[in-house]
Amino acid sequence: MIQLSEMLAPRPEPLWRLVKQCGVDTVVATLNGAEQDQRMFASVGKNGFVGAAADDTPWSEAAIARDVETFAGYGLTTIAIEDTAPMDKVRLAQAGRDEQIDNVITQVRAMGRLGIPTLCYNWMSVSSWGRTSTDTRGRGGALVTGFRASDSEALPPLAEPGEVTEEQLWAGLEYFLEAVIPEAEQAGVRLGMHPDDPPRALGRNVPHIMRSPDAYRRLMALKPSPSNAITFCQGNFALMGEDLPTLIREFGARDQIAFVHFRDVRGTADDFVETFHDEGQTDLPECMRAYAEVGFSGPMRPDHVPTMEGESNDRPAYGTLGRLFAIGYIRGLEHSVYGKPSA
């Protein structure tokens, strides 16, 4: 079976008990005050999370152990972390990157000792996921996020033209892998690279290198290792224009998928909207069959859901009701394909 999980910040809220009541027992955690915890909503113009005051750095073993204990108090087991120390100096191959790499290694070693086997990271420099709308009307008036390239190009640039290059990002990535993958192997931790979101060549003057299946084939070849793996974010891979079940079978047959974001979209990388799981452009039942065929049994979580009636849109794509709908949809597919486990 897959490990159906939810992404939660280590600050208790009613959603924790709701996902537990829906049968989710495992958590993909962000770190209190780390890079993605602070970037993910700021990147789309929202305030989002505010890290709670703490004496320990978020990626230290003491801080992660405290987060694990907090989740465990609600009957939730931490099986992955989707966050890191700041990494832009590493991504951009800049001075100071060795210190940032040391912070990531500190986190990886801590995860190994705490029995957390999966780390999701990304190579999106300067910012995080990009959207030009967080309140597009979807089915029944639900609010979904969307992207239009022409609208993005009208936004203020994130860098000067030519300030960041693809060669610079690839060089930074290779340097990172050489330093971190051996440590991850020793710790028993798999790193899963998340695609650029959206997977376009350029966003507001910042290149995107993790934007195609070929980029992932290149990544796997840079440092072949079980610890060098993929976060298969279905929405982004769908926007790359290739058949998702075929890609799942390709990468999954080589055991290169460490973690799955199970979601869907409608449109192209230049013009798309997020959707409810049952109305997007992808054959999601066939995707689940592909995961079963390759024997995938890692963490899988829903991602980027609509904001539904009566909910605040303060956390676009991460409303409570849409997440509960998605959990039920994914669980139903899992049981229909993998079989329902005996009581």
What does this structure look like?
The chain is of the alpha/beta class and 343 residues long. The chain is 38% helix and 19% strand. It has twelve helices and 14 strands. The protein has helices spanning 14-21, 35-42, 61-72, 88-91, 97-114, 149-153, 166-187, 213-222, 234-239, 244-253, 284-293, 320-338; strands at 3-8, 26-29, 77-81, 118-122, 133-137, 143-148, 190-194, 202-203, 206-207, 228-233, 257-262, 265-268, 271-274, 299-302. The chain has an eight-stranded parallel barrel with strand order 1-2-3-4-7-10-11-14, surrounded by five helices. Strand 5 (133-137) and strand 6 (143-148) form a beta hairpin. The longest helix is centred in the middle third of the chain and has 22 residues, at 166-187. The model has no long low-confidence stretch (mean pLDDT 95).
Record the SSE blueprint.
Layout: E1 3-8, H1 14-21, E2 26-29, H2 35-42, H3 61-72, E3 77-81, H4 88-91, H5 97-114, E4 118-122, E5 133-137, E6 143-148, H6 149-153, H7 166-187, E7 190-194, E8 202-203, E9 206-207, H8 213-222, E10 228-233, H9 234-239, H10 244-253, E11 257-262, E12 265-268, E13 271-274, H11 284-293, E14 299-302, H12 320-338
Helix pairs in contact: 5-7, 10-11, 11-12
